[in-house]
Structures are given as C-alpha cells and as structure tokens.
Amino acid sequence: MKKLILSSILFTALSSATFSQEKEYKPVDFPEGYKAQIDVVYTQANGWDGRMDLYTNPKSETPTPVVINIHGGGWNHGVKESQTGYGSFFKNGYAVANVEYRLVGVAPAPAAIEDVRCALIYLYTHAKELNIDTNKIVVMGGSSGGHLALMAGLLANDKKFDTNCKYDGNIKVAAIIDKYGVTDLVPLSKWKSAKNWLGKGFDNQKFIESVSPLYYVTKNSPPVYIVHGDADPIVPYDQSVALYEKLKSNGVKTKMLTIEGGNHGKFTKEEKSEMSKDMWSFLNELGLK
Fold first, then answer.
1. Nearest-CA neighbor of 71 among 119, 142, 21, 17?
2. pLDDT tens across 230-279, in order?
3. pLDDT exceeding 70 applies to what percent of the chain?
4. pTM for the full predicted model
5. Could you tell me the maximum CA-CA distance found in the chain, to the nearest angstrom?
C-alpha cells in the first residue's frame, strides 16, 4: 500500500507540476569582475541546441573551480533560468555553468545523460579560455537534476553516452552534490514520470540499470555529498540511503545530511542554512575552495 501511495504522489507531483517556459525569472546576481555568457551552445542534437549560462572569472590569477548546476523537473519540465542561487559559490571563487538538457518531450532516455556529459566535456575542451580548473569540477543537481549530476560524474571514463561529444582525455569530476536525487530507477520504472523518460526501455532491466547512478559506484568514484528529507513525498528517502551505503561500502568519501521531516527540497530557511554549511564543510575538506 505504501508503494501505491508513493506512486500516486509521484504521478501527481511530477506530471502536474510544470514550469512555464514564458515565466520570467530573476537574472543571476554575479560579482564584479565576473563575466556572464548566456545561452552558450554546448551541443547540438537533431536540430536541438543545448545551452548553458556561464559565469566565469577571467581576472583570476589562477584557474577557478567550477560548479555545473543541473535543474530538476522529473525529466519532463524545468528551465535553467529557474536556477539563480549561486551566491556561496561565487563567494568561494567558483565559476558557474548552469545547464539545460533535453526533456522527455524532445527525447527520452538516455538523451538527458548524453547532454550533461556533453556539458562536462565542453568545460574540459574550453577550460583555458574560461579560466577554469578541470581538477576542480563539481557537479550539482536536485531531484532529476541530482540523478543527472550523479550520472555525469559517476560515469567518469565510461563514455557509452558520449556519442554526441567526443573527448579523448581522462574525465573525473572532483565532487558531486546530490540533492534528493533518484539513484535507482529499477524500483521506480513503473511510475509515470520515470516510465515516460525511460521510453521503450521502461521494461528492460539492463537498460534501466544503465541509466541509474547506483550501478556505477566503484572504489574509484568521486566524493559525493547527499542531502534528502526523510519525509520526501516524491523521491523516496531510501533512494539516497541506498546510494550512501554503497558509496561507503566501496570506500568512497561521502556524507549524507538527513533533513528530519524534510519535504522534497522545500526546506526551511534554517534547514537550507544547515545544508549550506554542511556542504561547504565537505567541499573544503576536499580542498575545493
């Protein structure tokens, strides 16, 4: 019964919630000395342009760390313009790459994974002109964006989804920030939002595993910071617990913050502050300031 209730909630939350593409969002407030490049095309696929907004510091004497941010929305809605809260990253000297990707209405799985991998590769191939340090790339996302952030980083040098963007060098991100993301689509594959995104592969377990982060964890995986509310009505809390336990069993540096009674990202001001302090403590331990 609990699974049926969760399925019903997920169906409602991910199917009915829609970001209007015409909605106006506040522009990102970035520091003096930073350079904004909006709607940079990082990849193209069947007539679709993949765009990202870049906020870089060309005046920095040394290449800067960079965070790749990936919006959520059940793989079926959402826009990069809805993401604006990068103040703590700017204060810590980071560049920001705010990425859009193909939603299910454009193409089903694994298209979104291909796109975020292309965004990562774009930063590798343009690192010098963007003045960023490819040894200090952090990938971050919430909900389905958390799933995609995990996929982008955990794939590492497994280039099965790099069909649109080739890179011969070594790919390894410095850290992943997973905010209440989907980690294993196998138990969720019959839920409408997941089923739609999986497309024709919704009943193919090998394919579902291939687009699920949990199955890419190895002893060589990058450090992962996880935050999840234990009362999340959309993405089950145990999705993050499973990832955390697998990371630990493989000896991967990880930390998980549980927001007690926390919803699906709709945390209080105090909870957001706790998350920010905890996240930065984790990143600073990695030398990524």
1. 142
2. 999 999 999 999 999 999 999 999 999 999 999 998 899 999 999 999 99
3. 92
4. 0.91
5. 58
132-142 sheet: strands from edge to edge: 35-45, 48-56, 95-99, 64-70, 132-142, 175-179, 224-229, 254-259
Which two structure tokens, joined as six digits, stand for 1?
Answer: 């019964």
CA–CA separation, 239 vs 233, rounded Å?
A: 12
Beta bridge partners of 44: 49
Residue 207 — left, alpha, or beta (φ > 0 → left; ψ -120 to 50 → alpha)?
Answer: alpha
Taking the C-alpha atoms of residue 2 and residue 24, their distance in angstroms, rounded to an integer, is 38
Nearest CA-CA partner of 70 in 92, 43, 103? 103
- Type of residue found at 210: S
Q: How many CB atoms within 10 Å of residue 15?
A: 15
DSSP letters spanning the chain: -HHHHHHHHHHHHHHH----TT---PPP---TT-EEEEEEEEEEETTEEEEEEEEE-TT-SSPEEEEEEE--STTTS--GGG----HHHHHTT-EEEEE----TTT--TTHHHHHHHHHHHHHHHTHHHHTEEEEEEEEEEETHHHHHHHHHHHTTT--TT-SSS---S----SEEEEES-----TTTTTSHHHHHHHGGGTT-HHHHHHT-GGGG--TTPPPEEEEEETT-SSS-HHHHHHHHHHHHHTT--EEEEEETT--SS---HHHHHHHHHHHHHHHHHTT--
